[in-house]
Amino acid sequence: MAPSSSVVAKIKVQLKLAISRLRMVQQKDTAIAKQQRRAMAQLLEQGKEESARIRVENIIRSDITSELLEILELYCELLLARIGLLEAKDCDPGLEEAVKSIIYAAPRTDIKELQQARQLLVEKYGKDFALAAIDNSDGKVAERVLKKLRVEPPPPELVTAYLREIAKTYGVDWPKGENKEGVDEDDDDDEPSDGHVIRSLEAPLNTEELSKVTPPRDLGPRSPVSIAPPSPSTDNISPRVRLPGPPELKPTAKMSALKKQNSSAESKGAATSGDPGGKKDVVGGKIPDVDELAKRFAQLKR
């Protein structure tokens, strides 16, 4: 018999391979199930209900198998997380359900990596432990694993529920006229309306009252683009949102020097002019008022 440490190391490797393989098979089954559901929707749309009821059982069985693989994947992850407990001679009570469920369910799957992990677990804990798990004599195998492995036709209620959900997903009117709203569909059985319209409890608003109401601020067209400001960080305590637009032109040294020269020349010209306020009307400047024109004519007469 191989030493316990070497067997545990092999179990660890096989558990990792089994987990990756289980995930891959689940993804593949999910993709196939989507195609099958689309085919069921087409059959319902064509009115082939009996054919759809028979074929939908394959989808139900595929979903049950995917759920079983997901449960076994969780058990493999549990054993991998508690791999240190497998070093003991006897099975730990916290791992007994996972180990026996894998030993019981692995031969009923097509996952070779899981079957190899099962063989290593049988080698680790012995023949008597394996027989107890296979026969489930002590009832340690998980009940949900036993339920998923039962081979029995699905109940008609489940088949109808599957077809109804598929029709709802793909927008198929099945059963015919079910989605149409009836006259008394919203009536309560305890308090039927008898076809009478219930009077509103609140009186309608008049036109004058509506005109006095302040419209909400968010009334009107909104921009299709909404930008949220970035959250503060140590690098940028007060972040700002910068929208794309024309670049801001900063004045160069020559432009600022030229601007200073122009401002100094204007100030000198204002000082040398006769206007006490320093203002001088030039062509293209400010149009003089009537009072200013009268004053100028009076000065010219003098």
How many DSSP-defined strands? 0
Mean pLDDT across residues? 78
Uncertain runs? 181-201, 231-238, 274-284
Instruction: Kindly estimate the percentage of residues that lie in beta strands according to DSSP.
Output: under 5%
State the helix count. Answer: 10
**Over all CA atoms, what is the radius of gyration?**
42 Å
User: What is the CA-CA span between the terminal residues?
Assistant: 136 Å
Helix content: 55-70%
The coarse overall form would be elongated
Helix/strand order: HHHHHHHHHH
Structural class: mainly alpha
Main sheet? none
Oligomer type: single chain
Topology, element by element:
Blueprint lengths: L3 H42 L3 H33 L11 H13 L6 H14 L1 H9 L7 H6 L7 H14 L37 H6 L40 H20 L17 H12 L1
Describe the structure.
The chain is mainly alpha-helical. The protein is 56% helix and 0% strand. The chain contains ten helices and no strands. α1 (4-45) runs antiparallel to α2 (49-81), α1 runs antiparallel to α4 and α2 packs across α3 (93-105). The chain is elongated. The N and C termini lie far apart (136 Å).
Structural key phrases:
about 300 residues; mainly alpha
Can you summarize this structure?
The chain is mainly alpha-helical and 302 residues long. The chain has helices at 4-45, 49-81, 93-105, 112-125, 127-135, 143-148, 156-169, 207-212, 253-272, 290-301. The relative contact order is 0.08.
